[in-house]
Amino acid sequence: MKVLSCTASQDHRSAELMTDQGKLAVYGITENIIRCVYTKREEVLSLSPVGIERATEAGICIEEKEDCYILATSGVSIRIEKRTGRFIWSDRKSGKILLKEDSKELAENPLMVYSTGGEKPVIRRVVTVDGERNFVENLKPEEDHMAYRGKLYFDWAPDEQIHGLGQGEEGIYNYRGNVQYLYQHNMRIPIPFLLSDRKYGILADCGSLMTFNDDSRGSYLYLDMVEQLDYYFIAGESVDEIIAGYRKLTGKAVMLPKWAYGYVQSKEAYRTQAEMIEIAEEYRKRRIGLDCVVQDWNTWEDGKWGNKKVDKSRYPDLKKMNQALHDMHVHTMVSVWPNMNSGTENCDEMEAHGFLLNDYATYDAYDEEARKLYWKQAEEELFSGGFDSWWCDSTEPFSGPDWNGACLREPWERFQMVGNEHKKFLRADRANLYAAAHAKGIYENQRKSAPGKRVLNLTRSGYAGSQKYGTMLWSGDTCATWKNFKKQITEGLNMCISGMPYWTLDIGAFFTVNEKWQNRGCGCSQDPSMKWFWRGDYDEGVSDLGYRELYVRWFQYGTFLPMFRSHGTDTPREIWNFGEKGGMFYDALEKSIRLRYRLMPYIYSMAGKVCLEDYTMMRSLLFDFPEDKTASAMDSQFMFGESLLVCPVTEPMYFGAGSQKLDAARNWKCYLPAGESWIDFESGRYFEGGQWIDIPVTLAYIPVFVKAGSVIPMEESLEYASEEVDTPFEINIYPGKDTVFTLYEDAGDDYSYEEGIYNRITLNWEEREKTLTVGPAEHDFPQSIRNRSLRIILNKKESGRTERVVDYYGEEIKIYF
Length: 817
Known about the structure:
There is one protein chain. The protein is an alpha+beta fold. A nine-stranded antiparallel beta sheet has the order 5-6-7-8-9-12-18-17-14, with helices on one face. An eight-stranded antiparallel beta sheet has the order 1-2-3-4-19-16-15-13. It is globular. The longest helix is centred in the middle third of the chain and has 16 residues, at 368-383. α9 packs parallel to α10 (584-598). The chain is built from 13 helices and 45 strands.
């Protein structure tokens, strides 16, 4: 590609380069964000598949040299070679080269739309563990218009790390030397964003299937169907700054209700409204924390899959059920699906309005009017009946072709099979966009219907921008093995590096059974055929002491996720199924729940930073320790917020499968990042960073370390997130250096924070003076620290704890030690 000329726009915020193969346009979005477009059309199209608002704020200066053009904002410069069109990106201030792009390609690719051609549709209904689905077998492709396949080539530095791209199944942390397919599936959430440890990220404004390739055939991002090759280069001094750039483009994360950070009890599936109430009553009886009980699928009448009208014989009075739960301060979540069986009230209404896709079952979430009708259906019984939140399941609605068979197919074959279904029903150029469109409809329409109630949408799939719609993404239907548990940790880290702040999983995995098909859940206990995804190691479920140990370790890890949620099939999940008080498993689970609630002020403050500062609470060590190469390459430890280093235990120590007793060492090897001192959260022992250590562990303990120089607010043990208590509010100081923690408070479940009605109370520790300053608080909320006693705890390295108790009335106070 030869560059023939370069001209600046009148406002000098963009530049246009003519080449012998097409047009290149460069736009200054901010000083550190540049948009690049390569097109073969006469004009750059304004459409944004991802929904990016493209205001240009930064000026671009142009310098022509004999062999290249230099385009630059004050933060980033691009050297564009005239002979090849090659881009070389550099940090403007340091001159350091960040990335070399080898070339860009666009190849014609006709966009096909599919229909039955006016014939009667031939529908094959498939009943799977993942729901009932329709497949139309006589769809015919018709050419709609000409679009393109695109490729963006890279020339990575030899030791460069590449992360992000959403969540997969394989547990790949660094994508160098790998191929990854980006498509929506039960256990896959593609995000068109990659981040390098060389301090930049690339966001592709693309809604189609994609492939990341880094092998002997080349290093590139392949885009299956685009109108133009459109992407953003985001530079930053830190991962946080790059993520902030990503959210500037795709949308800021909103506040979720405070109760969403408490313990969420779910399983496949509660069957009656009486059972829902009984579960909550038992938790309250045991005085164990609980904030939400989840109603999974099959609330509808038999044979009416996906209908948003409940079976009145099992749920005779939703309002009464939800009121009883609300009286116990327990919230509820209900499963809804985008697909509905024909003959149901909801499906027939959608069909009458022309709002069904060509499978004659799934509503067209890309259509605003269809989204409004979907919400009307969801509101009629479920929302008006008192459910507080949504579980938007199966939001990658055409993954069925791969969700069968005894053997896992090859990666390319799965990509082709599932991707082709999405392309047929959703169009190739928006094959990855359905889940985000669905979430948009839930969010926007609930806010219109109930403007004073925050939206929470637990959803199995998402895309760039989902964070602005009140979503919590989860990793899909995993199976119970230690190997898979460790992979989930890695996938969660890549998800947070992908700019998505809210991610969770099924604690204990969804499937536990392997060969003993009679013990299967999901209505599949009569099906002896093997399934590639139903490969847990524990045929007896919770009766197997080996599964109990795995569940406890998964539970301890889940304690430090944005949402703390147990869920799965085959075997019950409530705490009393793991023994009784005094038993090793029960006590370990209870301890984790109590710790989650003690940390609630810390966790909710991190949520405030997510919203107000584009923060990330589940943090790969690359965020905070990029210069420590051991830490930044780790895929099994992470920071939870500013101060807590979490080291999950991912191997059995007590029992193997079949309750087999193990004679294993009960130590866990942890790496403590360099440049900091660390305190064992359990024992108070101090360690210097930059070393590996072996820590003795028990079933009730996984290694968690506090960074020295931290202030961590805590609460007395609560039973639910919004509980008002009279006991003193704890502020724990872990000395070592000066630090400031910002405590966030708001009303908890409305949108008044958007009007600035919240507190951000500074807790400022001065190491030399041994002084804590508690800043002012403007507002008073339930659970606010205003008008309460504060217990200030100084955790000294050598002489133990020192405490002060003071009264706080919302004005600045100083506490001296």
